[in-house]
Amino acid sequence: MRKMKLRLGVNVDHVATVRQARYREKMASVITEPDPVGFALEAKKAGAHGITAHLREDRRHMQEEDIKRLKREVALPLNLEMANTVEMVKFALALKPNAVCLVPENRQEVTTEGGLDVVGHCISLQKNVARLRDVGVKVSLFIDPDLKQIEFAKKVGADWIELHTGKFAVVYQNKRRRTEELKRLMKGRILRMRWD
Description:
This protein is α/β, with parallel strands linked by helices. The protein is built from eight helices and six strands; from the N terminus they run βααβαβαβαβαβαα. The protein has helices spanning 13-23, 36-45, 64-73, 86-95, 122-134, 147-155, 166-170, 175-193; strands at residues 9-11, 50-54, 78-82, 99-102, 138-143, 160-163. Strands 1-2-3-4-5-6 form a six-stranded parallel β-sheet. α5 links the parallel β4 (99-102) and β5 (138-143). α2 packs parallel to α3 (64-73). The mean pLDDT is 86.
């Protein structure tokens, strides 16, 4: 079995969440504090190996200029989380981050509440994964620990998957249900390891 090297990726989204709550009206003309790019630079100094940022369709926290600045100013690999839409794929193709994680988005959610439906969106995912990989961007899919979703993630050409752990968090206080959900996550991890 291949040894895996632990890596630290720091997500800077919620630095922008605080900024947007304070300065939403000023964002079109001026960069205000707290600055997610400044936070990413501090994370780099502290030993982070990469930066993750989610550019949501509704732009509730990170803005396009934040993402461009992260790519330009922070000398670390950038993992861009985004929806599988024409607009977002076009943005990623122009930016060429090191990696893209395709996630589902629901405008009413506070945070991502479930995994991407790879089975239901197989055709568009296969096309967009290929387009991103053609310009050198690695692609992951944020999915539930479900056998069929994992199989289809491989079929559409994803480089890896990220398993949604929300259900585990929700049932955590119930020991029996927590154990069941942990088993599902571990099974998903094992299935993913068989890709290599």
